[in-house]
Design goal:
The chain has 2 domains: 183 residues, no CATH class; 102 residues, no CATH class. Helix content is 43%, strand content 13%. It is built from 10 helices and 10 strands. The strands form 2 sheets. Strands 2-1-3-5-4 form a 5-stranded mixed beta sheet. A hairpin with a 2-residue loop joins strand 7 and strand 8. The protein is elongated and about 75 Å long.
Amino acid sequence: MLNFLNIFNKKKTIIVTHNATFHADDIFSCATLSIMLESEGKSVRIIRTRDQNKIDFADYVVDVGGIHDPSKNRFDHHQKGGAGMRDNEVPYAAFGLVWKAYGEKVCGDKIVAQRIEEKLVQGIDANDNGIDTFELKGEAMPYTIQDLFYSFRPSYTEELDYDVRFLKLVDLAKEVLLREIKKNSDLLKASDIVKRAYANSEDKRFVILDGFYPWGETLIEYPSVLYVVFPKLDTWRVECMRKDKFSFENKKPLPASWAGKRDLELAAATGVKDVTFCHNGRFMIVARTKVAALELVQKALAE
């Protein structure tokens, strides 16, 4: 009994999840709670078990225990009837339940938390509940974040060290979440800059940015925009706007005669000096100067 009580030493905040095989659901649940608790200066210990005595003594329980009660920090979805469903009919798994309770606190911003809910959390919850979120074209399978984590499960030829691998993956998931929080927070700030650039554009068919900002999600909302001009490293680029955020199809691809050409050959094809490369997919062309990039835009618009 003494050893059992020592495990639950209150100097550490205890998170319990199930043992044996791990999933993206329980990994990200533990990662989210760890980020939150560590930001509060708390020391965290994660225990993987199905022992009900240990579950009862835990500060937080995810993906095990048969109870969903946020007021008691219990986040399971395996009980009869599950733990609820979103308006889009994606059922909640443990990650979604934890994120619903603490996502905004972890992100420090409601909009950022919602973006991560839509981009990451729902897909993991759907997968954990056996729901497909995409349709295959041919035999090409996407390699999902679940596949990445599952590749760390021990093979039948290896020692079954699930717990060690699980804790390593929690650290990886924490990095993923922190990067998503950072990227989405910065994207919201950049969106205001991009909107101002559009508002200041004399010709609404293209937008000129003075820096390398994320622009795709913002400018997709403006039907008139065909091209975006922006600096990247020591070059200037012209990129095409996609028809929608779920497609690689461009509204107006660059001229076919430019595709795949470089340097002098590309200069001859475009009639513009200081060009370096046009992608075969005709969605991007690179120039050495802003002046050259703007010349390219005018020629592409005229085609």
